[in-house]
Amino acid sequence: MTGPNQPSLFDSEDAANAEHANESVEFIYQRTDLTKVEVKRSKRAKRNVTAYRDNDKTIVTVPTRMAKRDIDAYVVELVNRLDDRDERTSSQESLEQRARMLSKKYLGQDLFDTHKVPVKIRWVTNQNSRWGSCTPDEGSIRLSHRMQRMPSYVIDSVIVHELIHLLVTDHSPEFYELMNKFPQHEKAKAYLDGYSHAQQYFKPE
Ligand SMILES: [Zn+2]
Predict the structure, then answer these.
(1) Is 125 exposed, middle or buried (0-12, 13-18, 19+ CB in 10 A)?
(2) pLDDT tens digits, one per residue of 160-189
(3) In this predicted structure, what is the pLDDT of residue 24?
């Protein structure tokens, strides 16, 4: 469906300019709302309590017989630990390191060194209609904070997409020639399309 020069969710010039104008907050990380944590009892868990992230959900697995009071204490501790980890991996500094690595690996050059102007990449909280956007003349790449808890291949795909726009402004065959070097880009696109679709049709109550 998305061919060359077709508008995509990643970016569209008009929207990019409009949103760029009133961009204010660089990065806000929201700690997990504990009431939204899902606790699952598991026979296999025995004495172990584990927690993991599934997109924006946090799932804590506890042994079947564990007391409610003990569970609460574990949940707070484990969720805090996951939040700390996510905060570290989402920081501005690590975002730039990650983008540099992707640029070298998939585009054969570190665009942070080779682009005509210094490149800045950052999370923004006021970009809700697109996942990423790029203003090549300013060397500026913005990523929607809504992606922060998505799988890393999805975030990487959007970073590579926007990095390519530093070189190729449209979605021409030249663009896709570069994009295809990132092996999971179709899978990432399917993930984001599915996510958008679900958000559109399954509104939280
Ligand atoms: Zn694009």
Answers:
(1) middle
(2) 999 999 999 999 999 999 999 999 999 999
(3) 37
Amino acid at residue number 78: L
Q: Measured in angstroms, how far is the CA atom of residue 178 from the centroid of ligand 1?
A: 12
Q: Are residues 101 and 67 in the same domain?
A: no
Regarding whether 85 and 101 lie in a shared domain, the answer is no
* Residues spanned by the domain of 156: 13-27+92-201
Question: Of 44, 61, 89, which one is at a domain's C-terminal end?
Answer: 89
Residue 8 lies in a domain: no
Cα(130) to ligand 1 centroid in Å equals 10
Same domain, 180 and 145: yes
Span from the CA of 59 to the centroid of ligand 1 (angstroms): 34
Same domain, 113 and 55: no
**pTM of this prediction?**
0.67
**Quick one: CA torsion of 7, 10, 12, 16, rounded to 10 degrees?**
170
Task: Report the separation in Å between the CA atom of 171 and the middle of ligand 1, taken as the mean of its atom positions.
Answer: 6
Ligand 1 center–CA 164 separation, angstroms: 8
Domain contains 195:
yes
Residues 6+ away with beta carbon under 8 Å from 157? 182, 184, 185, 188, 189
Give distance in angstroms: CA of 175 to centre of ligand 1.
Answer: 9
- Ligand 1 centroid – CA 199 distance (Å): 21
Cα of 189 from ligand 1 centre, angstroms:
12
